[in-house]
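Re: the pair you flagged

First of the two:
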Amino acid sequence: MNTDVLTNILNKIEDPIVLSVILLLVVFLLVYKTEIASKIFKKPAKQKVGKIEDLRNHNVFSTLKRIKYEVSNMKFYTHKDYDVVKTRMCEDFTHIKSDVCARIMLEFLEYGIEDMDRDRLKKTILDLQANMHETYIDDIRRIWIARKIDPSDVDYVIALFEKFRYDVVNSFEHRITGIFASELYATNFSLTLAVFEMWAMGIDLLPRDMQTTFENLNGKFKNIEYDR
């Protein structure tokens, strides 16, 4: 502002209090003009754009490892006596499920997710989820039968587990549909990240479901020679 113009304005102000306030304001603006300008015209910080490969470090994988240790510390009883077979069956089931899910999720990150359209990515994730389930069920069934568990008893345990796990699996499908219907997830990275967060939540509940499953088994396995 021109000095003469400012002087003329100040000379016309008769109230000494108002004049003092204006002078203080002018001095403040002159002293801190650089800082004020930088605040007003500051460029917004660029948000980090996530990459699919970053998801290899997602905590879903550490969660899969952690639940194996949690279940390994569980002990099951039949008529108040420690049931080593039920305990080992539960541990084996959890380890196989965890390892299968971790392997298939890591393989999924190599699918070229960035180049998929939204519908194809959704179908791929739903197929992947079904594949994980089918694979670990097939693996544990084969292993239990090899360890002298009658096939009908194997199917009974698996059916019992799936009964207690049904709500979680059903919620997964509903949440995946909801995620892909939302405009909040604009990129394939954000879509996949949301699904990984959902899976991690479900995996956190696995020890509870394993405990409920094996606590509801009777003592039919107690005297089996369960070789490991």
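Second of the two:
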Amino acid sequence: MAKRRKEKDEEEEDPDFKIPKFDEEGFVRKERVKIKATFIAFIFAFVVALITFGFWILLDNNPFQWTLVLLFGLFTTAWVRYLYMKLNIDLEQLGKKGLFSSYAIYFLTWLFILIVMVNPPFYDMEAPNIEIVALPDMQEPGGTVKIIAKVTDNDAIQNNAVDFILSYDESVVIETSLHITNMICMYEFENTNHTLGTYNYTMKAKDVHNHQTTVNGTFIYNPDIIKLTQPPGTETPPGPDVTYSSSIKFDVKAPVNWMYYSVSDGAVINFINVTKNNEDFFYESSPYIKGWIRGKEVNVTAYAKYIYYFENIETEYNNTIIDTTQHYFNVSDDSEIGTKDPPTPDLPQPRYVFVPGFETILFIISLAGVLLIVKYRKKKRNNDI
């Protein structure tokens, strides 16, 4: 038994294993082929990117511009193998993995160079973008209208300003240049003449490469934008009697975010929020709500506010519609008057959108691909050593 164990130990001490001889000359030759192939793929990608750039310009304003360009890039990838054969690159030394890496290097390099070339400062095909809003687009006489725009461009706006024209009944009311500050420009129309009807406005922005964007819009002045529909109050005192169960309804024709009204007896003034009834779409309230004054003759004035946020800008822009008609009521002395809490309005909040552009996505993919290939090459070289 001991003899067998001894023979087994001797066999384990003398394993039949020989370290293979490292072919240094073959390794160097193979690495030179890989380096040469990588260099050719990179140069070829640069040349084809220049040709593709001209193709890109010819396809300007074509809805399939990116699709056709990417198909062209994929098609030309097959030329890499043909180019290697013409330049006497040993494909056996390169191997299937090396050929695939060359394809990837070519395509990602081509894509990276093309993305750089089709964006400023090398090229600009995009006109400025104008996001414009009228606050409000329906106003009562005496109120103002704010025309506010967010103007952006992938390079720069000429003179950092836009041209603005306001007209009424085909007559120009104002024609001016509005300065852009932090992407925002604004014009406030006061309508001192209290002229009713529809106003038209035009805003034009031109970038430093002479690409122009024009937007048009309208707003209206009308004395019935806010209207009390129930009960029919009087415009002079004394008004009709109302109790805690009376329904106070307002019709607001303009799109607004916040409706409220004031109740005043001449000495005290309270403001009360109103919510819209989803069934009849009127803004409904009642003397049951806190703010109404018991046993007093009061006057009521309605207000509607339009609040707006541009994407990724925290600044709130707003304007208010004030009903030009005051309504008088005689409030009963019921104990239930002014006992219920008013509703809390659900107001707009800043909007944040973080969506990278298509070019940014392609750039990230290209960069990640190149880094992965370099890392793979480095790891393989270390393993071969």
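Helices lie at 2-13, 24-58, 65-77, 79-86, 91-117, 358-384.

-B.
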